[in-house]
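Encode chain A's predicted structure.
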Amino acid sequence: MPETHAARRERLQDVLATSDADAALITSLVNVHYLTGLASSNAALLVPADGRAVLATDSRYALTAQRDCADLELLIRRPVESALAELASKRGLHRLAFEAHEMTVERFDALASTGELEPRPLGRVVEDLRMVKDAAEIALLARACEITGEAFDAVVSAIRADMTERDFAVLIDRAMLDAGAEAPAFDTIVASGPNGAIPHHTPSGRPFARGDMITVDCGARYGGYHADMTRTVVLGAAAGWQRDLYALVVAAQRAGIAAAEPGAAVAEVDAAARDVITEAGHGEHFSHGLGHGVGLEIHEAPMLGHGRPGRLADRVPITVEPGIYVPGRGGIRIEDTLVVRPGAARALLTTTTTATPRELLVL
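Encoded structure for chain A:
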């Protein structure tokens, strides 16, 4: 059964019970959303180590909070952090854990000056809780991935000489919306020809030309959850070196996916793919980490990269996205969103053209 928001807060309270904090003040809007179901631009949550949590938001979201968060005590105030800090002090919750990675110095100073509070860092506790997804979250991610693949399949054949990178980025964004996305999960990347050597190139007015490798990194957001997919195609006849590099990236991705199982060290998963590219003489052309977690944010824990700490767990969605970027010539990246499961990671994408990127698509 899907996990309820109340169950998520109980898991946080279990952590607080073993700490020296009386309560946690959650100010990351993504974490508030995860723990309450409320998506807003102004909200905070006070979670005592024992007892009922208090959600603060302003009048713009009052009716939504009353409807969707009926099991929470509600506080309708515009300055949500100070309102909850004052409430914590009045209720004797003096040792208040806060999200230091999210809070500015100015906001912390205001918090520390409230009543008799003793602020202390909470750490990335909620982010750690968010890593393992329940069945409902995985279903939303799967739909986001399906929309992404459907959109790509619908428009990839429209690529032609003289279409610009920016034109195609707009086209695929519209296709994702038409297929049911709430919005693009991030700014779509379209990088052609030499621009493909820039992993996060911003789509420009450069027109496609025959012989270009074209890398498209896109994703749909659905139900608040983010998909992430990258495909590289060639316009016109593919050169031998393009086919060779593409096959190398495919082999690297296969190795990374095979290594991504519960208990695997994230650094070792990265190494499994990276070693394939390095041994072929292109180690210097693979400059970023192998992948990252996805969920309510497009980039969330865990991060798969050289020297990164931690191990994968069951039901953790990740991307596996090796790439080769050759300055002056172009780049290739292949990326899929998968869920770590015993035996092998399971892809969340099932559409035709995008489901099995084993052969280079030549347009």
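The two ends are 44 Å apart (CA to CA).
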